[in-house]
Amino acid sequence: MTTTRSHHATGTTASTTAGAARLHHPATRRAFRKVTILAAAYGALSAAVLLTVAVLASTGHTVTSFMWGRSGGILAGAAVVLWMTVLASRGARWAHLRVRVLSVVMPIAIIGVDLIPGVCPPWFALAQATCALPLAAAAFLSNGSTLRAAFPKPRS
Fold it and tell me: Are 46 and 78 in contact, with CB atoms under 8 Å apart?
């Protein structure tokens, strides 16, 4: 694998590698499209949970501060994952690494916390677990060989 470097007027260094060429490969584009759709689905489901909490609260049902904070935090996390997925699809290696980690860790954390007895009502735990499913699916794609090949480890 060869690497060429060029200096821009800003003083930054850009590198073009065989891995960067893979970023535009049809299989890579397809994988990124799927991860982006899954991240968007994670966000949409998270928004639906927050909306459900808001509707329940406004109709006099019991809603805890945990449910508000958790559903708002999950939605904020979804926005971050979607943003990083878009940046990764444009070639940001750091963003791809974070998407790889977050797509694995977040579903485990979401489900793990919701399994603590008494922390939230069963319907809320189920709704949160449903939100985590698209992100868990994205973990398989973002950690798969197609996307990892688009971001080879830099040589020291």
Answer: yes
